[in-house]
């Protein structure tokens, strides 16, 4: 059993999470070769984006690890990083510049990862682990904006597909594959999912999402299957009701950039195909009307536009009832912004704390954050925990959180 996590450790870990993301982690080649992904450890599956600092095809990479308290850290692989994972007397240790920080425990994989759908697809290629109780499903691992030269400048979905799709058996998923995988994951205790993915030609996603919802409901017997539909802004706002009617209980539409001029430059397809910057805001407003406050989410790519501008957008959307969340920008390999530098982790830490204050000020709960976002055990989850706002099943895990 994990030992108690102190408040000091929790804030140290939040800081470390942000630094590990920015600076990456090197892992010795012999460790990568010996890790037993077949039977034990959770590997990275690149269903949408490669979030490492390089494209690494020689071996599989671990998805995440925990410290002795159970706190979860994602792996952002960077062979040149000053952070490294090494082996010491049979234990794995996180080091910074050669100095040991603590023992780590690689995340074990869910049981459903080893199962096959009825048509022979590996379930790990259909839905990926994003936390203790959540899975994510990228129905399409490519984005049709590329054909028009309009993909978002920070995005590497199409480059990721070129590098990893064949290697990992990734492609368009059928609604039956998704339903069977969801059933297997939910039988194991998972309880929420997000359906996401790149734009498909002619924006036919609403029909697809409805088919997926019906198939999941039929197989799991759950009318409310804990689903979040992540969609691009539709031109016809009435479409939003259809997602609700289909059984999704939350919805997400990611603005990425708040400044309207920067939005045009950084997200040219979202501007030209989806009715422009104002339409994204109109869609989010309508989504709150249909799904309710706290059941609508919008992610921002934090680090491209000025901090004050992005926070202004986050505040504006939160006042409308949207869970607006900054994600730390990684200049992903294969994106148009590859080779750029993200701001310092201190910059992002300030953004996180200010966003968390806005979440509290606008009366969003941990539950709101949980049902609307596509992740778990994030720095925001830990901040809610630090304030005593636990998800019901977390009480057992973190009840030992001690003030010092
Ligand atoms: S809409 Fe933009 S962020 Fe989304 S998949 Fe397409 S290019 Fe990537």
The helix/strand order is HEHEEEEEHEEHHEHEHEHHHEHEHHHH
Residue share in helix: 25-40%
Question: How many extended strands?
Answer: 13
Instruction: Please mark out the parts with pLDDT under 50 across 5 or more consecutive residues, or reply none.
Output: none
Shape: globular
| Number of helical elements | 15
Distance between the termini: 21 Å
Briefly, what CATH class of the largest domain?
Alpha Beta
Annotated CATH homologous superfamily of the largest domain: Aldolase class I
Structural class computed from helices and strand pairing = alpha/beta
* Major sheet details: 7 strands, mixed
β content, as a range? 15-25%
Work out the radius of gyration: 20 Å
Mean pLDDT: 95
Overall number of structural domains:
2
Architecture overview:
There is one protein chain. By secondary structure, the protein is α/β, with parallel strands linked by helices. The chain has 2 domains: 7-106, no CATH class; 111-398, Aldolase class I (TIM Barrel, Alpha-Beta Barrel). It is 38% helix and 16% strand. It has helices at residues 7-23, 29-34, 123-126, 157-168, 175-187, 205-220, 239-246, 260-266, 268-272, 276-291, 307-320, 345-361, 366-372, 379-386, 394-398, and strands spanning 26-27, 64-66, 72-74, 83-88, 91-96, 99-106, 128-129, 134-140, 192-197, 227-230, 250-252, 296-302, 323-328. The strands form 2 sheets. A 7-stranded mixed sheet has the order 7-8-9-10-11-12-13, with helices on both faces. The protein is globular. The structure holds iron/sulfur cluster. Iron/sulfur cluster binds at residues 143, 145, 151-152, 155, 157, 198-199, 232, 269-270. Iron/sulfur cluster is lined by residues 143, 145, 151-152, 155, 157, 198-199, 232, 269-270.
